Amino acid sequence: MKNLELWITSHKLPVGAVMAHLVDFVRKHGMFFFNSVSDVIGYFADGLTDLLLSIPPLLMLVLFTGGAYLARRSIGLATLVGLGLLFIINQGYWQETMGTLSLVLFSTLICLLIGVPLGIAAAHRPWLARLLHPALDLMQTLPTFVYLIPTLILFGLGTVPGMISTIVFAIPAPIRMTEMGIASVPRALLEAGESFGTTPRQLLWKIEIPSALPMIRAGLTQCIMLSLSMVVIAALVGAGGLGVPVVRALNTVQVDTGFESGFAIVLLAIILDRLCRAKGTS
C-alpha cells in the first residue's frame, strides 16, 4: 500500500506546471491586448472615481438622500441613506468610499452586460448551460488569491487586476439568476404569446424578461454584495477604496482604523442593498 501511494505521488499530474506555462504564454504573446484592456478599464474606472469626488460630499449626501426618497417614497430609507453617508463623512472615509463605490458600480455594470445575455442564452440552450455550470462553479469556489496571481501578472498593480478579479468572482450571480428567471417563466404565458403570433424576439422582450425581472434584480443585488466582499482583496493588489485602510489596519494592528473602515463598508453595503431591492420589499 505504501509503495502504491509513493507511485501515485511520484506520477503527479502537471496541473500547476500547465497553468504556469499557459499564463506565461499568454503574457508573452498577448501583452498588447492586456495592456489595452488595462488602459481602457483604468481610464473609465478612474474617470468615474474622479467624477464622484468632484461633487462636494454634503451635496452628494443630499443627492443620494433625495434620490432614495424619490425612487422609493420611503422616509425610512432616505433617513438611512442620509445618516449612513453622514457617518462616513464624519469618520473621514468619504474619498475611500467613493473609490469603492466606483469599483463596485463599474464591476457590476460589466457583470450585467455580460451575465444577463449569457443567462438568457443558457436558459434557451441547454447545451450552453451544461458547459457554463462547471465554469461558474469553479469561478465561485476557487480561492480568490489563485486567480489573483495571473491577473496581477497580466495587468500589473493597480485598480484593474482588482476589478478583473471582482468581475470573475461576482459574474456567476447574474448569469445563474437570469437563467433561473427565464427558465421559470410560466409555460402558459409563453403559449399565450405564441398563440398571438409573437416573434421569438418579441417573446423575449415582452414576456420572458418582464416575468424574470425579479430574479434578474436579485442577481444584481447579489452581484453588488459579492463585489463589495472583494474590496479588501482588491486593495492587496493596488486598488483604492475602503479596502486600503482595512489592509493598513491589519498590517499595523490598528483596531480603531479597522472598525471605522469596516463599518463604512457595512453601511455602503446596506445602502446599496436597500436601494436595489424591489419596491415593497423590506
Can you describe this structure?
The chain has 282 residues and is an all-alpha fold. It has 15 helices and no strands. The protein has helices at residues 2-10, 15-29, 31-54, 57-72, 75-91, 94-124, 126-141, 144-155, 159-170, 172-183, 187-195, 200-229, 231-235, 243-252, 255-276. Helix 4 packs antiparallel against helix 5, helix 6 packs across helix 9 and helix 12 runs antiparallel to helix 15 (255-276).
Number of helices: 15
Radius of gyration: 22 Å
Let me know the number of strands: 0
Low-confidence stretches: none
Strand content: under 5%
Order of helices and strands: HHHHHHHHHHHHHHH
Question: Can you summarize the main beta sheet?
Answer: none
Cα distance spanning the termini:
59 Å
Q: Supply the helix-strand structural class.
A: mainly alpha
Defining key terms:
282 residues, mainly alpha, 15 helices, 85% helix, globular
Please specify the SSE layout and strand pairing.
Blueprint: H1 2-10, H2 15-29, H3 31-54, H4 57-72, H5 75-91, H6 94-124, H7 126-141, H8 144-155, H9 159-170, H10 172-183, H11 187-195, H12 200-229, H13 231-235, H14 243-252, H15 255-276
Helix pairs in contact: 3-6, 4-5, 5-15, 6-7, 6-9, 6-10, 6-12, 8-9, 9-12, 10-12, 12-15, 14-15
